[in-house]
Every structure is written in structure tokens, then in C-alpha cells.
Specification:
Blueprint lengths: L2 H39 L36 H5 L14 H20 L3 H23 L4 H17 L6 H26 L6 H14 L4 H21 L12 H14 L3 H7 L1
Length: 277
């Protein structure tokens, strides 16, 4: 195996490990935020919680029976296959998304190295992709796009552009972040003025700003088009299968992240790129 292919393999293995960590973030970060919000609403003299809960503590465990996972039960993908998708103690099913996130992150890391080699550029795009995977899953579960991820993603996109790591000029990144935020902000307020309802969360503004910072303003039309069409198709399919009520809400974040990953890998839609050139 030559050095180039060895780099892919090492990146894929690292991606599996990072994917395992992302599963922890996806599960715990919304709960940490909820606990923080509850603490802020509580009286100032309320007692401190007796146990800590964060990304690192407690250790990995079954959410059903709290069985602490051994190292053999914590190997990405392989442990899921070995356990046949069930907890070794209570035999409760383990969600298929755990290995899916690990495998998808692994593929994105391998793509980053295959495209950019063993470089800081590959690290930057692998980090960008990891953040999008976490945001997509969190939004799908909770309809939240945490500032703890979206805001650093905006600033890191601008920094990557300034350092020449993203291939996007700093000017395009600045306009991408600004126009991305203002576009969805305008759509939000227009929809609210017309219907009296909120059509999307404010986290979507920040997510599109982050995508604009990383991919540049010329990519914004492709991003919105891909996200809107894919979201509409999924919504129609769910409505047809009666899995979505008339007043049901589908979070937009997963479709924005899908669009971001698509443009990262394949570039803007050809016809749109031609018009924006």
C-alpha cells in the first residue's frame, strides 16, 4: 500500500473515532443545554445538582439500563455488529444511527484526505463536515441548532478563508456569511408577517451563514435550492405516508447540512454556478 492510500485508510479510521465522539455530542449536548436553561429559570438559591453531566462525564453507558460500556463495547461499528445492535445487559436495541454516523464521518474524513492530501486543508474540511453531521442529527432529534456549534462554525469559516485553507476568498466568505444570514432572516420575518407563524428557527440563519463563510456567497443559491427541494420531497413523502400531520414541522437544518456537504464534495449546481460566474 502506497503512502497516498495509507493516508486514506488512516483518515477513515480517525473518522470512525470522531464519529463515535459525535454520537456522544449528538446525545448529550441538547440535554446539557436543557439543564442550563432550567438552571437559569430556577431561583438563584436553588441547590446545585448533585451529579455532573457533560460531554466527558459520565462514561459511555446504555441509556436504558445505565450499564457502563467496556472498551470492547465501545469500538466504532464493530461493537455494534458484535452485539447485534443490542445492549449486552438489558438487550435493549441500539439505534442504527450510531454506526451510520461513524461510517458517514469516516467516509467524509477519507474524502478530505483523498481530495486535499495530508494537509491542513484536509483537517479544516474534515472539521467542517464533522460539525455538519452533528448539527443535522441534533436538529432532526430536537429541532435545535446549538450556538455552541453554529457560531464557531461561522468564525472558523472566516478564519479558514483568511488562512487559505478553504479555497474561498475572504471577501467571498464575508459576503457569504452576511448574505446567508440576512436571506433566511428576511424569509423568516416575511413568513411571520404574512402568516403570523414562525416558519423556521433562528439557528437556521446562523447555519446558512456558516455555510456561506466556508463555501462563499456564489454557493448560496445552490445551497438554498438543494435544501428546499430535498426538504419539500421528504415532506411530501411523509405526508403521503401519513407520518406528517397538516400542522407538522420538519426541521430545515438537516437539509441545509445535506446541501452543504453536497456542495463541499461536488461543488455548486452547474447551471447555478454558470449564472453566478
Amino acid at each position: 500500500m502506497d503512502a497516498h492510500h495509507l493516508g486514506w485508510v488512516l483518515a477513515a479510521l480517525l473518522g470512525l473515532t470522531i464519529g463515535s465522539f459525535l454520537n456522544v455530542v449528538i446525545h448529550r449536548l441538547p440535554r446539557m443545554l436543557e439543564a442550563q436553561w432550567n438552571a437559569e429559570l430556577a431561583a438563584e438559591d436553588a441547590p446545585e445538582p448533585s451529579s455532573r453531566y457533560n460531554i466527558a462525564f459520565p462514561g459511555s453507558h446504555c441509556p436504558h439500563c445505565t450499564h457502563a460500556l467496556s472498551w470492547k463495547e465501545n469500538i466504532p461499528v464493530l461493537s455494534y455488529l458484535f452485539l447485534r445492535g443490542r445492549c449486552s445487559q438489558c438487550h435493549a436495541p441500539i439505534g442504527w444511527r450510531y454506526p451510520a454516523v461513524e461510517l458517514f464521518t469516516s467516509a467524509l474524513f477519507a474524502w478530505s484526505v483523498a481530495t486535499h492530501g495530508l494537509s491542513f486543508q484536509a483537517c479544516a474540511w474534515a472539521g467542517f463536515a464533522s460539525a455538519l453531521v452533528a448539527l443535522a442529527a441534533i436538529d432532526a432529534d430536537t429541532t435545535l441548532l446549538p450556538d455552541a456549534i453554529t457560531q464557531p462554525l461561522v468564525w472558523s469559516g472566516l478564519l479558514a478563508a483568511n488562512l487559505g485553507l478553504s479555497g474561498t476568498s475572504l471577501t467571498d466568505a464575508l459576503w457569504g456569511a452576511t448574505a446567508g444570514y440576512l436571506f433566511l432572516w428576511s424569509v423568516y420575518w416575511l413568513f411571520k408577517l404574512v402568516t403570523g407563524k414562525e416558519g423556521m428557527g433562528q439557528g437556521d440563519f446562523k447555519l446558512l451563514a456558516a455555510l456561506g463563510a466556508w463555501l462563499g456567497w456564489p454557493a448560496l443559491v445552490s445551497l438554498v435550492l438543494i435544501a428546499s427541494v430535498s426538504g419539500a420531497l421528504v415532506g411530501l413523502a411523509m405526508r403521503a405516508s401519513q407520518r406528517l400531520s397538516e400542522d407538522g414541522y420538519i426541521p430545515f437544518g438537516p437539509f441545509l447540512t445535506l446541501a452543504g456537504l453536497w456542495v463541499m464534495v461536488f461543488g455548486p449546481l452547474p447551471s447555478v454556478a454558470y449564472l453566478m460566474a
